[in-house]
Amino acid sequence: MVEILKQGSQWILLFATSMVSFMSTIDASIVNIAVPKMSRDLKVPMNEAEWIVSVYLVMICVLLIFFGKLSDQVGRIPIFQIGTLIFVAGSLFCGLSTNLTMIIISRVIQAVGASMTMATNFGIITEIFPFQRHGIALGVNSSFVQVGNIAGPGLGGLILATFNWHYIFFVNVPIGLIAFAFGHHIFPKDTQPRKPIVVDWLGYATYSMATVAFFVAIYWGQAIGFVQIRIMGLFAIAAGLLAVFIRHERQAKDPLINLKIFKSGGFSIGIITAMLVYSVGYFNNMIMPFYLQETLKLSSMTAGLILMSIPILNIFSAPVGGMIADHIGAEKISFLALFIFLIPELIFININVSWSIVWLIVGLAFFGIANGAFQNNPMIMGNAGKEYQGVAGSIAALARNFGMSIGLSLATSLLYFGISVKAGKHITAYPTAHPHWFIFGMHFTYWFALAMIIIAISLLGGLLLKQRLSAKQVKE
C-alpha cells in the first residue's frame, strides 16, 4: 500500500498524473484535424493517413487490460512512470517522422506508454487520497481526461494555425518530462508486497484478437460498407472470441479480468454510460471541424477558438461535480449532468447556417458543463471493491477508448449515410457544392447522439431507482 502523503504533495502528484492523462487522451483526438495536412506532407491517401489516428486507439484498447493486471502485481507507480517515459519517446519519434511507416511505428510506441499510464492513474489517485476526497480528486483528473478528449480539434487548430503538424507531438515532450520529474521526486515508495508475475496468456490472446477483429471490422466497414460478408464475418469472429474469453476467464485460476467486478450494478452501468458519453463527445470532434471550416468558412484559428468552449467550461465543471459527488454521490450528479447534455444535442439537431454563431457557442458551452459534471470515474471506481482498483481503472480507461473509437466510426458512418440519403447517391467526402447536404447529414447524426444520451439517462435512472428501493427496504 502506498504511504499516506501530506495534502500539498497529494495535489502536486494529482496534477502530475493528470497532465500525463491529458496528453495521452488528447493524442487520440488532436491528430484528427491534422490528418489532411499529414496526408499531403507524407504523400499518402487520406484512407491510409487515417490509420495514424486509428492505430493509437486500437493499440491502447489491446494493451490496457494487460497493464492493469500487471500493475496489480508489480505496483502501479513503476508502471505509470515507465509508461510516461515511453509515451514521451513515442511523441518525439512521431514529431521527427518523415514517412507513414515511421509515424505508425511511433504511434504504436506512444500507445504502449499511454496504455501504461491510463491503466494505473485512477488506482494511484484512489491510493494517495483518502476516501472522503476521492470525488474531488477523481473529478479533477476527470477534467483533464475529458478536456483531453474534447480539446483535440480546438487545440490542434490553434497549433496548426502557427506551426506545422510535427509540433502537435513535440509539445508532449517537455510536459511529459516535467510530469515524470515531479513523480520521481514526490511519489511515495510503494510498500505493497510484490506478487509473482502471472499472466493469463490464453485469456489475453483471445481478448486481443477479439479487439483487433472488432476494430478492423469497424474501420474496414466504413470504407466498403457494413453489410459486406467480410465485415459481418469479422464481427462474428470478434463475438465468438469474446464468448471464448468470458468462458475462459470464469474458469481461470488467475484470470486477466476477475468478472466478479461486473456483479456491481453501479460499476457495470458506470462503464456503459461512460462509453455512451465518450462516444457522443467524439461526434463533436468529427463533425464540428467540418461544419466550422467547410460550411461556415471559418479559419482554423477561429474554429479552434470556438471549439475551446467545451474544454474551458469542462475545466470548471468537473472539479465542482466531483465536490458535489462527494456529498450526494457520483450517480446522482451524473444523472443530472445527462439531462444537461440534452440542451446541446437539441441545438445541434436544429442549427443551421442562418443561425447566429452564438447558438453554436452556447451549445458547445453546455456540452462542456455537462461533460465535466458527469462523474464517470468516481462512479466507476467507487463501485469497485478495494481489491479491484487496479483492474477497475484499466477497465474504465478501456471503456473511454472504446467509446471514442466507436463514436468516431459511428459519427463518420452516420454523417455520410445522411449526406448520401439527401443527395440520392453514395458520398464519402464533404459535398463542397452542396453544403445543405452536409447540414442534413449533421442533423441526422445528432439525432443518434440524442438517443444515446436518452439511453444513458434510462440506465442511470434505473440504477438510482433500484438503489432507492433497496435503501427503503433496509430501513423497513
TrEMBL record:
The chain crosses the membrane at residues 12-31, 51-70, 82-105, 111-131, 143-161, 167-187, 199-221, 227-246, 267-292, 298-321, 333-351, 357-374, 395-417, 437-465. Residues 13-470 form the Major facilitator superfamily (MFS) profile domain. The keyword Transport applies. It is found in: Cell membrane. It comes from the Bacteria. Keywords: Membrane, Transmembrane, Transmembrane helix, Transport. It is a multi-pass membrane protein. Coiled coil: none annotated. Pfam families: MFS_1. This is Major facilitator superfamily permease. It comes from Paucilactobacillus hokkaidonensis. The lineage of its organism: Bacteria, Bacillati, Bacillota, Bacilli, Lactobacillales.
